[in-house]
Amino acid sequence: MASLGELERAVMDLLWAGHEAATANTLRDKLATSTEAKGDAAGHEGKELAVTTVLTVLSRLEKKGLVERERGTRPHRYQAVSSREEHTAELMHEVLGSAPDREAVLAQFIGSVTESEAETLRKLLGHV
Amino acid sequence: MASLGELERAVMDLLWAGHEAATANTLRDKLATSTEAKGDAAGHEGKELAVTTVLTVLSRLEKKGLVERERGTRPHRYQAVSSREEHTAELMHEVLGSAPDREAVLAQFIGSVTESEAETLRKLLGHV
DNA sequence: TCAACTCTTCTACGGTTCGTAGAACAATGA
DNA sequence: TCATTGTTCTACGAACCGTAGAAGAGTTGA
């Protein structure tokens, strides 16, 4: 149950970007303005969504365990459960985990990584 | 357009496993017997599917670029476009590629890899 | 060449997920 | 208490997936 729809992803991107907790209203506004004034190519356009739409999406993200909300405050505040990096890394593990031959996959993976990333990896692995 | 349904995945698994080209009929039989005689837990049970079902799935996989078929031979023969490892590694890159801070994700990723895998990675990267 | 058979394509339906939002209900402030 | 603001419920249409019948096309034995 990992994959996100387009709007769901846009919302997560906002939560990850300014990583404070946000209200549905704030998010709706950001969705409207983000990538709107600049005819952004890949952006998720600047449509004025109904707040309920945003709320529905947030509920779904909550159910998926990606978002948690403070129910105490009156306009509930929503925030990402984990950072984008954590989440992405987790996804990578998920993908990798489903393979019988993990090491072969890793080999393949490493083979197509940029040199600078390879360098980063060497450092992280405690360069021999 | 990356994610696969359960049956689609089962078919890919078969194509990857015995990695010869196979006909729809062969695949249907294998789907029926694989993981059937042993009450396998996670397996995709041993139901007798209609051949057309398998064909539909194969067509969809073809459209997704995961499978190619030989149209020349009469019972068309289907095979995976890339190996499971290639495919999985590609998926990992896809996941990683969508992140703004790739290196941070890699850091996170490496942090939760098993020691033996870390060792493998060192070898692959290292030859220092 | 014709009939029987095999295989593929077309079409379709029900379930699930996602984008979208109205209607109704709850809380909060003046 | 009333108006405002926010939340939950419910719902609908599109897309994707599992599933398969009906019809069309190729193959082959007689």
Description:
Two copies of one chain form a homodimer. By secondary structure, chain A is mostly helical. The first copy, chain A, has two domains: 6-80, Winged helix-like DNA-binding domain superfamily/Winged helix DNA-binding domain (Arc Repressor Mutant, subunit A, Orthogonal Bundle); 84-124. The first copy, chain A, is 54% helix and 6% strand. Chain A contains six helices and two strands. In chain A, strands 1-2 form a two-stranded antiparallel sheet. In chain A, strand 1 (67-70) and strand 2 form a beta hairpin. In chain A, helix 2 packs across helix 3. The interface between A and B is medium-sized, with 35 and 35 residues. The structure holds a DNA duplex (30 and 30 nucleotides).
Query: What distance lies between the first and last C-alpha atoms of chain A, to the nearest angstrom?
Result: 38 Å
Number of helices of chain A: 6
Average pLDDT score of chain A: 86
Strand order of the largest sheet of chain A: 1-2
Instruction: Tell me about the largest β-sheet of chain A.
Output: 2 strands, antiparallel
- Per CATH, which architecture of the largest domain in chain A? Orthogonal Bundle
CATH superfamily of the largest domain in chain A: Winged helix-like DNA-binding domain superfamily/Winged helix DNA-binding domain
Which percent range fits the helix content of chain A? 40-55%
Largest interface: A-B, 35 and 35 residues
Question: What would you say about this model in short?
Answer:
Chain A has 128 residues and is mostly helical.
Structural key phrases:
homodimer; 128 residues; mainly alpha; Arc Repressor Mutant, subunit A; two-stranded antiparallel ribbon; 2 strands; DNA-binding
